[in-house]
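I would love for you to help me understand the pair of lines that follows before we discuss the fold together.
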Amino acid sequence: MSTKTGAAGEFIVCSSILQLNGNWKIVHTPQDRIDVLAFDDAFFLRISVKTSRINNDADGRKPSYHFQNGSGSKKKTLPNAGEIDIVAHCFLDDRRVGYYATEEVRQYSQRRALHYACAPSFEQDTWDRAVQIVQGRLR
């Protein structure tokens, strides 16, 4: 994936968070693992953005989004809750985002069907669930 693709995904995530219920503010902070900080009056969240375009595999699989959740150039590691609170999957071609608490991300690679993120409430529903899990961890 190109740097431009990753940056596009990060800005889509920023836009998505600003449209969610609540008084969320964001800071785009592209670093090694944290791409966006989101905060309200109560707390802040460290967000890692993973962006995918529709993948038309030559091996006969159906077109899908394929997310690489691991980080690191030599040895891939899954996100951990000590560094990242939420992993955002940006479905670039649909301009949609799914949010997952770090604890929910247990695979290095995930494929999602083309219409996985198309429900109108998908972004708000996944955000609410992820924030609830993170709040439970922080208490």
